[in-house]
Structure formats: structure tokens, C-alpha cells
């Protein structure tokens, strides 16, 4: 199943993750040649040191998992993550502002982070479990307009993760753009990963990357 490895952002984002957990994550990612490791921003420098001399990249989440920080806070977190060596940024949108229909503010929040990235990839997490279909579409459009390289379904910390229905809505939204889709949350096995890839998803966020590429179940492991 090596064809699947380059879809995987090998992820550990739980609050209890130790430095030893991050080192193990990086070792696994290098061994299986995953696209990236995805970590909280405080672990970026450690992850960068651990994956050096490999093809694996470092992805940092920003404004995670609620997205309700000030834009300035997200910008400063992004700046530090880039300074520490992050290759990609996965930021959470401000869900409350979206639901308030404060669309300019949502756009500006995303754009402010995008503006800190000269070369790095930006993925914008919509947290689809909290959104109506119309809000998923609108959030996708705002992220695309702000320059997102990917729109991402979920943090893995909401009430639900990726769904086929939401991915299809996101796919409709990106039709006339170069933006891609990352599915995350609840993707724990090869069959599920392939289901999303066959829909056109170009990245999978999961803490079960090894199970996906080996075809072996790793249980109900979460972010």
C-alpha cells in the first residue's frame, strides 16, 4: 500500500502528547515515508530536528482546535511556527464569526495567516461537524478567496470528523480553483482512506497512518 503513504499527514495533536511521542511520530513518518508529521506549534522545532535528512515535512496547526483566538494571536503563532521550521500550516477558521455571517472578518483572519507564508502551504480547517451545508460552502469559498492551498474538513476534536457528504460539498466549491481537499477525523483504515482518495481528496490527516498503509487495524486511536 505504499501508494497511500504520500497522502498521509501523520498526526498527533492530543494535549497529553509528550516529546517522546513526537519523536516516535517522526520516526514512524520517516520509516513509512509519509508526506508530513502534523503537530502542535510548540513541537515544530523538535519535529523538524527529528525528520531532517528525510523527505517528510513538518505541518503545524494554528489556532487549534477552536479557531476562536484573535487574528493577531494566529498570526504570531504562525510566525513562530515558520521560524521553527514548519513547511505547512493547518489553521482553524473562526467558526463563531462564520456563523455570525461576519464573512469579511473570517476572510481577513485567513488572509492574515496566508500573508505570513512566502512559500509554505496553507490548509484551512472548516470544522464541518458544526456547519450547515450552506456554511460549509461559504467557508470553502472564503478560504479559497484568501489563498488557501487546501481546505480541510476537521480538527479531529469536534463532534464528528470527515464525511463523504461534506467532502462532496467542498469538492463542488473548489471546482474553478487550484485549492485541494484534506480529509481528517475518523479515518482509521485503508478502506476509508481509499474512499476519500477516490473522491478526489489529496491529503489525509490521521493518527492511524501506519494502519492505513499496512492494512492492519490499530484500534480506536485518536488525535
TrEMBL record:
Keywords per UniProt: Cytoplasm, Lyase, Schiff base
Main subcellular location: cytoplasm
Top-rank EC class of the record's enzyme: lyase
Pathway(s): Carbohydrate degradation; 2-deoxy-D-ribose 1-phosphate degradation; D-glyceraldehyde 3-phosphate and acetaldehyde from 2-deoxy-alpha-D-ribose 1-phosphate: step 2/2
The keyword Lyase belongs to this UniProt entry's keyword annotation: yes
GO molecular function, one term: deoxyribose-phosphate aldolase activity
Active site: residue positions: 90 (proton donor/acceptor), 152 (schiff-base intermediate with acetaldehyde), 182 (proton donor/acceptor)
E.C. number: 4.1.2.4
Pfam (any one): DeoC
Annotated HAMAP family: DeoC_type1
Function: Catalyzes a reversible aldol reaction between acetaldehyde and D-glyceraldehyde 3-phosphate to generate 2-deoxy-D-ribose 5-phosphate.
NCBIfam families per record: deoC
Protein name according to UniProt: Deoxyribose-phosphate aldolase
Organism in which the protein naturally occurs: Olleya sediminilitoris
